[in-house]
Design goal:
2 domains; Transferase(Phosphotransferase), domain 1; 7 helices; alpha+beta; three-stranded antiparallel sheet; Phosphorylase Kinase, domain 1; 11 strands; 259 residues
Length: 259
């Protein structure tokens, strides 16, 4: 049987004890507080008084595993780490990255881990009703990111954390392994697709896009295009659910860790 070979990378500015990250694969299933248990798992550990977030990525379907293993695509733990550094450099908030671990057996990628700080006193936007002030603040955040060339591909309600400080909303971005950085403002086509994601219902989404258009000096009727894309996407998602029931689907679909 092939031996597991681990690639361990630690941020030189990490505040964690020197040997902690190397022990993560052994510690993960034995301790910490389970925060998320679905396709991937997230546990929070107390490390000398510091809250540390560890995300364990599930073993990808065989096609993606080969792409990751042959370096045709960066493993999620690696891309998340690199994207976090770029996001912070651009002046936006995301949990500080401490390091990552890749496990390979026979040269093929298996589990991987991303280690970062645990953001405290913030909550996800989520799938609920929100006051116009929060919708407007998220629109401002989105406009600022797009203007500076940042595109969060998985820009969904649970991947935008927020809190209020001194009467103002502050935000932090999570689940950032899929992120694009432009050397110019985000093109309108990509922005339209991105805009349909932060709110789950048409009413709040319409308000959000109207605020966004105002901040960027765009057509106030932009929301109509976004809604059309959103409705097409919903139909596509329904079609994908049917595809997942096909016998060969396991070749292309991640197997959840929590099931």
């Amino acid at each position: 049987m092939a031996k597991i070979v681990r690639t361990i990378f630690e941020n030189p500015n990490s505040p964690l004890p020197k040997d902690f990250i190397a022990q993560v694969p052994t510690l993960f299933d034995k301790g910490g507080t389970l925060l998320h248990n679905a396709r991937n798992q997230i546990r929070v550990f107390d490390v000398q008084g510091q809250a540390v977030n560890i995300k364990k990525y599930c073993i990808a379907p065989i096609v993606n595993r080969l792409l990751y293993s042959w370096n045709w695509r960066s493993p999620k733990a690696v891309s998340t780490y690199r994207n976090a550094l770029k996001i912070l450099e651009k002046g936006f908030s995301t949990p500080r990255p401490y390091g990552y671990i890749l496990e390979r057996k026979g040269g093929i990628l298996g589990f991987s881990y991303f280690i970062s700080e645990q953001i405290k006193d913030m909550q996800p936007v989520g799938y609920t009703e929100h006051p116009d002030e929060l919708i407007k603040a998220i629109a401002q955040l989105t406009a600022d990111m797009h203007q500076k060339g940042l595109l969060h591909i998985d820009y969904t309600p649970n991947n935008i954390l927020f809190s209020q400080k001194d009467g103002k909303y502050v935000f932090s971005l999570v689940d950032i392994n899929r992120f694009h950085f432009y050397n110019h403002p985000v093109p309108l086509g990509a922005a339209l697709t991105n805009l349909m994601k932060p709110f789950h219902d048409d009413r709040q989404l319409t308000k959000f896009v109207k605020f966004y258009a105002g901040f960027r000096g765009l057509d106030p009727n932009l929301y109509k295009k976004v809604l059309r894309r959103r409705h097409l996407r919903n139909a596509y998602d329904d079609f994908k659910k049917k595809l997942k029931k096909l016998p060969c689907a396991s070749w292309f679909i991640n197997q959840p860790l929590g099931k």
